């Protein structure tokens, strides 16, 4: 990430420490994770101890200190999804991609992320990939879903 | 109608780039003009574009419908309107044809083509795409006659499925901002407060604190100046100017009321906040919305931009001297940030850790300023309360709230009913309705001929209620007495294939991950409770552990810093109270009666098997063997209990024991 881009983000939020969370959110969105050098740069710019940014970066679920894959498979673990079999869906995807929860495939294509309720409980269990929601996913259907995604189909 | 269709043509846009500001004098005319525009059509085609329907193809249906009309040159006759969540999410994508109110469900390109050809051209509604009565299987033509809709009473969701959330004129035509006009032209701030007090409305976010009382304390604190301990570490710009905040950090799993309200009718929330600001004397407001709701955020931003452009937010609102503006704060994903002091902390750029509430937010909240925090649904109710009067609102629901809001629960409540229930979706019903009416009459009962086992209300802080409690009236106090709580309105229905120990463990593990870790009873208590529940689900517990479990729960309830820890034991205590047998079966017999807990179950193939080989083909570990058309066998040593064989078997030949 270029310092120019970081500066743009910092300026968008007027370099105000009150917007530290927003600034990190924009960096996360841009870069898919929070690189250590960028965190140091932001801390210097906001005159904050870098530890405070790490506190934020590890407290909120939106942030990741490790790079994430090109596609993040977000498996909803809300209650409705849970009673309709989300844990089994998560297991099945994990088996299919050969990555643990929170892990990224070797080719950097997929990250498997169990997430909090996505609020589409009516079509549980739900898997979200990018902006696309896939509803009523059963463990038995996971194979086809992963294959489709690997081939780049929506 | 989409916002795009309404824009002036390109050549005109250059000269009239900004739409005219609306004043109290011209508000009605703007609404009338839009109504006339709608009346110029033969009918309206209301396409649901809430998140549920969109994931089932709502946007595709909207665009195909427009293309079909254009192809048949019917686009001057019928108008396609994209609406927010209709509520009947189980049946998406949904189309309602006005003025008759014909309801079409589960549409795809093919069935939509049929509707266009036979209904819109031929004038004959298509029975095949109508809703079917659950008992008789007969089609029900009109939306109002479907049981799901018949028992509802809409206040917060008054415009659901009618207005276009991305078009402010559509909201104004349905009476949007009329209450604000009434307040700014005929009422003093104290009158607005008076109506909210009289309504007896209690906070819809979960705790049920009377909204009017909260506003009143904030007004008092603003007048006398902020006192006591401050939340803020930064400079306080103006210590006595109050702030108001809308809590849209809907964190309860299984709840999506707030998301739907914003996606459906964002202007109701904005108008409610304007009225609140007028009543308490604030000029600055915030909406704290979770990042998991991209569509709601997008619509909220559009609505705010339109409201600003038309003079309904910002300076000189509706041409008066009243000024108020709103900023959006995106939540970064932390359940605890739904707690008021944690929410304020994260708005100030710090991690969301709650503080002890010796001093309330109404005295010293955001940046040390007096702060009113209300939930999305509460704000959406405010315009109706101001418009129709607090007494009218107070007459709906339970108890007599005229003297004190604590005497009952007034108004309506929006519930999301999900899980093992036929008609999943969103409903708004008067307070005091019985659980069984919501689950069976409106909800259509349990699908697949299975048995009702429990209903979970109130999110992770709530409890599970068994069949014997189905007669309970749903209001704040009754649910609390039964060991659960109203919460924000999530209602998860569970059938007999749900293990209650597993459910309790699910909630505890959720909270264990979400605990901020600041206070010991919550941080360590949740870990210990989770370990005990884990031992029970693995069949490694003794009965003595149950006593220890209850002791831990009591300690957490009395000693945790915030409500996350204090209410965390509810799922455990309520399941222990109502489903103790199930705990004992895990401990004494080392069995999971519902067939969920992996360590205690095994999969077997019964003689029902006809040897179709589907299970063997789908088994990820290839542990099912058998010749074609012969009984198959599962190798228990290699089986990982993923349950796929049971899912794919069409002959009910896989048993869990």
Major β-sheet annotation of chain B: 5 strands, mixed
**Number of H/I helices of chain A:** 7
Named CATH topology of the largest domain in chain A: Glutaredoxin
Mean pLDDT level of chain B: 90
Short description:
The complex is a heterodimer of chains A (154) and B (657). Chain A has helices spanning 3-12, 20-31, 36-46, 50-59, 79-83, 86-97, 142-150, and strands at residues 71-76, 110-115, 127-129, 132-134.
Describe this structure as you would to a colleague.
The complex is a heterodimer of chains A (154) and B (657). With 154 residues, chain A is an alpha+beta fold. Chain A has 2 domains: 3-59, no CATH class; 71-150, Glutaredoxin (3-Layer(aba) Sandwich). Helices cover 45% and strands 12% of the residues of chain A. Chain A has a 4-stranded mixed β-sheet with strand order 2-1-3-4, covered by helices on one side. Chain A is elongated and about 50 Å long. Chain B has 657 residues and is α/β, with parallel strands linked by helices. Chain B folds into 5 domains: 3-146, Glutaredoxin, CATH 3.40.30.10; 176-232 and 239-395, NADH-ubiquinone oxidoreductase 51kDa subunit (Rossmann fold); 409-498, Roll (Ubiquitin-like (UB roll)), CATH 3.10.20.600; 501-588, NADH-ubiquinone oxidoreductase 51kDa subunit, iron-sulphur binding domain (de novo design (two linked rop proteins)), CATH 1.20.1440; 602-656, Alpha-Beta Plaits. In chain B, the strands form 7 sheets. Chain B has a 5-stranded mixed β-sheet with strand order 14-13-17-15-16. Chain B has a 4-stranded mixed β-sheet with strand order 2-1-3-4, with helices on one face. Chain B has a 4-stranded parallel β-sheet with strand order 9-8-7-10, with helices on both faces. The longest helix of chain B has 18 residues, at 520-537. Chain B is globular. Residues 1-16 and 226-238 of chain B have low confidence and may be disordered. Classes of the chains: A alpha+beta (154), B alpha/beta (657). At the A-B interface, helix 2, helix 4, helix 5, helix 6 and strand 4 of A face helix 4, strand 13, strand 17, helix 20 and helix 27 of B.
